[in-house]
Amino acid sequence: MQRAARSAKRCIAEPGPPQAPWGPVLQRIASLRFVLRCARDTKHAADVMTASLRLRAACVSIALFLAFIGIWHIATRGTGAVATMSPEYAKLMGLTATQGKSAMPGPLDVGAKLWEHLKRPFYDNGPNDKGLGIQLGYSIARVGLGYFLAVLVAIPLGFLIGMSPLINKALDPFIQILKPISPLAWMPLALYTIKDSGLSAIFVIFICSVWPMLLNTAFGVAAVRKEWINVARTLEVGTVRRAFTVILPAAAPTILTGMRISIGIAWLVIVAAEMLVGGTGIGYFVWNEWNNLSITNVIIAILLIGVVGMLLDQILARCTQLVTFPE
Prior knowledge:
MetI-like fold, mainly alpha
């Protein structure tokens, strides 16, 4: 009886074999923790490297900008020979001829004039004297309307071309003929048929925006992995539902890339179109200020065109990142 009791106590104190199966499990848990720790450390190191790269890039950009401003300021400070002329002619020619001052305004002159425009961006003193805010508003409205019409046409038609080899072959000759035509070449025909300068500019924006979106949409739809489409067919998913639930999410990054290209081309073309049609818009503002020999306002308009174009591009770039996922 005592021997049995001692054996039972020894079994409780030293379980032995019953605990053996837990060894591999604990090793796996330790290995998993190690892998997770390594992944976390790797992600942290990647974030640090990305932040460091951004900081260095920002420093280089600032240095280049300051160097450009300095060179510009030095180049426009120089004075040339003063010409001898009558007072009336000297008054007409201005400081360029009478004092030998550079005809190109310096960064300080441009900055002062820009501040004046920013203080009163929406003034309206007549047809040829409107604030930069009004001029940009007209241009952005025309680009937005023409671009929206291009989206309504290009994306559905691109889906159809990408999903149907027959439609692709049938429409390809027409696309290849119309795509290389300069958008401004359509302006005389638009003015003759539409008989409205504003609508003609919108039509030109539509024409130049539709091709990149159409081709990128067709390419993105056609490049969707066949395995995904076959799985959807196996599950008896209809064509329309398959297009929205399988093809559209897979092709979205390519479609938005085409939209990003289109918005850049549209903003590029609207300036030239407004120079031709006149009236309002940032393009007309540039041409009107050139006729007034106001180089300072021309430079300011060029800077604003670049800033607005960059903002439009960054908006669509951000949208592209939101719909891009690693496979």
